[in-house]
Amino acid sequence: MRVICAGHVNWDVTLRVDHFPKPDGEGRITDQSQSSGGSASNVAVALAGLEADPVVLGSVGRDDHGTMARRELTATGVETLLVESDQPTAVKYLIVDGNGDVAVLGNDGANEAFCASDLPAETLAEADHLHLTGQDPGTAATLARDAASADVPVSFDPGRRLPFRDYSAVLSHADILFCNDREADHARDRGLFETVSTVVVKHGDCGATAHMDDRTVTNAGYPIEPVDTAGAGDAFAAGYLLADARGTDPEGALAVANACGALAAQSTGAQTALDWESVWDLVDSGQSPETV
After folding, report:
1. Whole-number mean pLDDT of the chain?
2. Cα 101 from chain centroid?
């Protein structure tokens, strides 16, 4: 399955701390690591591990971080369409406490320097799916419109910026919307659910729910001890898209997606090298989806 993942490409610095300090307090860094990141990159890496054929459309700076991000993506089997900008590559600092909870500090840098015209029409036409992550609303809307015109299904995971940016034009062309509980409340209040045929709401360690017309399907997830929840939602999206494309029923697609998210939460960093054996081991571990 050839999936184009469009959105932010960052360089991540992950700092593990003993706790999140309060104002005027101090926490202790227990570990530090660096890698490529950004939601578009994270989904693509997860897809590559699950034997898909991902392409990343995004932008980086003409600097060492951009070079390293491109190199790491290529090494995982991800094809890159990365525009080079005079701005520096965006750097995100992921602060992870002992419970696996994550706080993010970052700058935008070059991660929205690309535009829809940087995706060749023939590349889009040959794709099986377009997955959009948080990015400039105008760029995302044009990409979604072009994909719909080419009969390429579109999914969208706007992330934490949904309440602050107008993505209504994107959602008018989207087939699947991914969001967390807070984002879902915002989308529901603005009537955005009505424009998308499938809305998948991620509940963190409480599983996920898929809303499809008059049907709702839930999966409770898997009992794990999280190490780092950064990127878990991106791994979830990768699993759901592949399962759905294979014709898996909604219950099964949620089970696969939750397994991918759980596996990502058990590893350090926002990018996870998934594999089907580990996913199916978790799916077959006894958890069962529930339809309501």
Report:
1. 90
2. 17
Q: Which long-range contacts (CB under 8 A, 24 or more apart) does 29-32 make?
A: 31/268
Say if residues 78 and 51 touch (Cβ distance below 8 Å): no
Torsion sign across C-alpha atoms 80, 238, 116, 37? negative
- Give the list of residues 6+ apart from residue 25 with CB closer than 8 angstroms, or none: none
Residue 255 near residue 236 (C-beta atoms within 8 A): no
Rg of the chain's alpha carbons, rounded to an integer?
18
Separation of CA 183 from chain center:
14
pLDDT tens for 36-49 read: 899 999 999 999 99
φ, ψ for residue 54, nearest 5 deg: -85, 150
The domain covering 2-10+37-88+109-291 belongs, at the CATH homologous superfamily level, to Ribokinase (3.40.1190.20)
Look at residue 171 and tell me whether its pLDDT is greater than 60: yes
Side by side, the strands of the sheet bearing 215-219 are 79-85, 53-61, 2-6, 129-133, 154-157, 176-180, 198-202, 208-212, 215-219, 290-291
The domains of the chain are located at 2-10+37-88+109-291
Catalytic (active-site) positions:
234
Q: Give the mean pLDDT of 182-206.
A: 84
Q: How many other CB atoms are there within 10 angstroms of residue 136's CB atom?
A: 16
What is the Cα–Cα distance from 258 to 216, expressed in whole angstroms?
A: 16
Half-sphere exposure of 213 (CA within 13 A, CB side): 1
Residue 102's DSSP bridge partners are: 96
Alpha-carbon distance 151 to 43, whole Å? 22
Q: Which residues have CB under 8 Å from 11's CB, separation 6+?
A: 34, 35, 36, 37, 65, 66, 68, 69, 89, 90, 91, 92
Q: What is the pTM of this model?
A: 0.91
